[in-house]
Amino acid sequence: MRDFSDDLKTLRRRLDEAEGYLKIAELRARQPQLETEASRPDLWDDADQARKVTTELTSVNDDLALFGSLTEAVEEAETLAEMAREEGDESLEPEIVDALDALDGRFAELELRSLFSGEHDERDALCEVHSGAGGTDSQDWANIMLRMYLRWAERRGFDVEIDEVQPGQEAGITTASFIVKGRYAYGLLQAERGVHRLVRISPFDSAARRHTAFASFSVVPFLDQGEIEIEIDEKDLRVDTFRSSGAGGQHVNVTDSAVRLTHIPTGLVTSCQNERSQHQNKDRAMQMMAAKLADLEREKREAELAAIAGEQREVGWGSQIRSYVLHPYQMVKDLRTEFEVGNVDGVLDGDLSAFMESYLRWRREAAGDE
Predict the structure, then answer these.
(1) Tens digit of pLDDT for each residue in 90-116?
(2) Residues 6+ apart with CB under 8 A from 290
(3) Options 1.10.10.10, 1.10.760.10, 1.25.40.10, 1.20.58.410; CATH of 5-115
(4) Where are the domains of the chain?
(5) Is pTM, for the whole model, over 0.90?
């Protein structure tokens, strides 16, 4: 009969660690307070506050339920192993092994939580993809990247709201903006911020030569309007209206209801075309602009401390964070973490979790060395 005592001790240690980084004691104290707030009859008199309370309560309940489920599963594995040992029943060994393997996978996924340290890591993410150097190939690459992130979000069960897509001249897109909605969307997608390089035989080259294309990905946390302490002077904005186009859903119409905002002092641009009216599109674009300006202020503060994360570079040679090589060999390699895989098709189909995890671990190690 195999001795499982070391495996069980490891699981119990990981459970104790999870109790710490999930802050279970704080959550247990916070839960009744939130339940009291959520049950107030006047809760929805302040919609922003109501959403904040209900969102936090859902997160607290989810984490407590998850920890309770893991605790129960560890205890069941310990009981099963003890029973098998006392009775000398080797027939239970495969069941114990399966239980340990399942728990190992659950803890591995949960331990990603310990890598999130930012104030807004749990938030939704406001994302943009931009084509860069490489002409038509770059615009096609931007479109491939957009699909990659949409597939990644789908795999994780996140919702996506596409706000604008600008088509390229011959193929692909020049830019796309979208919001990924789900817990830790921003924390995970921070790993993707920067310039991405594609090397392949160009489908747009009649001589079938190898081409290199670049596109960039940017992301900021998408905050509720009531949480953003940014005041935007209307005099600093240029407001353009245009006709909605593309796959915007059932509410896209053929009037000039889409809105694009340009913040003149910073050059930041946001746009929205998915709402029912020009007024609603403008409100949404303003919320997106406020999120961008808030993140710009954050970057300025970090710059003062010489700790800029995600600095913007030229979208071209020498500035990439990751290379995707389809020819003459197949490999995707992150140039910051040195993590690489050979399954390029899988990555382009949204299998990005390993890259994100390796980035989060690399970032924590780098912070520990400072």
Answers:
(1) 899 999 999 999 999 999 888 888 888
(2) 223, 225, 228, 230, 232
(3) 1.20.58.410
(4) 5-115, 124-315
(5) no
